[in-house]
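Input/output pair, single chain:
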Amino acid sequence: MNPVNDSLKPEERVLYALRGLYQRYGYSQFKMSKFEEYDLYAGNKDFLVSDGIITFTDTDGRLMALKPDVTLSIIKNTRQMPGSVQKLYYNENVYRVSGSTRCFKEIMQTGLECIGDVDLYNLCEVISLAAESLKSIDPGYVLDLSHMGVVSALVDALGLDAERRAAVIACIGEKNGDGVRRLCPDKDVSGILALIAAHGPADRVIEALRPWCAGDDARQALDELARVTDVLAANGCDGVRVDFSIVNDMNYYNGIVFMGYINGIPAGVLSGGQYDKLMRRMGRDCRAVGFAIYMDQLERLRDDPRPYDVDTLVLYDDRADIAALTKAVGALARQGVSVRAQKAVDGKLRYRRLLRFSEGGIADGE
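Output:
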């Protein structure tokens, strides 16, 4: 029994485990302020999970915002170091509209970022850590991978205007083949329909798409996805699939993107990918990949499997010798069990054992 770990809520135990995981792979914790200038987020609202932002005016007149996102703050507050990578993880509160309550909420978010001269190893390491993160929550996890390069190349081949292009990409995200046909009655959309239909084990999906990826850009992107999934398979990441409905904003993301799921929660709890385009938008000439885990989603798993709130309940009355009571309760706590002392039984409190304190000491209270 681990008394410290047993006293934590499910999401707190997850944070504790993930911190150890990331530190073992050489990631350093990044700490930041609770707020940034509003302009940082206003210019990149499409990148945010929620466009709701809590703002206030600082004493010097600047419009500030309680941070709704961590990645933007990390990019802003880290230095560019050519030829190297910065490996950072974070456990930070963000302030945004919760997906479960649709109200503003303080949400604990954890994740990591790898920024700089990111190569194939770094990319595979981050995605492997995403899989390990999900596995630590639920061994039956699923991590869906996509590649924005494949999606972009096949859509670009249709020669659409910007409006129809965006609508087709939205249909891919919804797995809506009929919508693609209606949008493009004058085009051969067989490649897009194959993309929508291709989801499942990586080797099968990638081979099914090869005939549709004849162009250099599409072929190179598919080859990169194949290399990454081969590495993941070699490292025992059994929950990885390929699903091209994972489509992030192409103004920010490029390359591989991914979404993670666990049993019992109908929405994704982990989201990440390569965001080199965001780095360029923020004036950085380097690459980046990372992911975030949305702890508010994990609150849906809060049903506590423990049958008791406290192991031992000690009842005492007004005649109790407080010094002796304190000593007795402390002795129980040092045995590694949870103990609570109070004058009356609370009907809502679940306890395993009831004891009573009297002049003769603590005795069975049942």
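Residues 216-234 form the longest helix (19 residues). Residues 7 and 338 are 9 Å apart (CA to CA).
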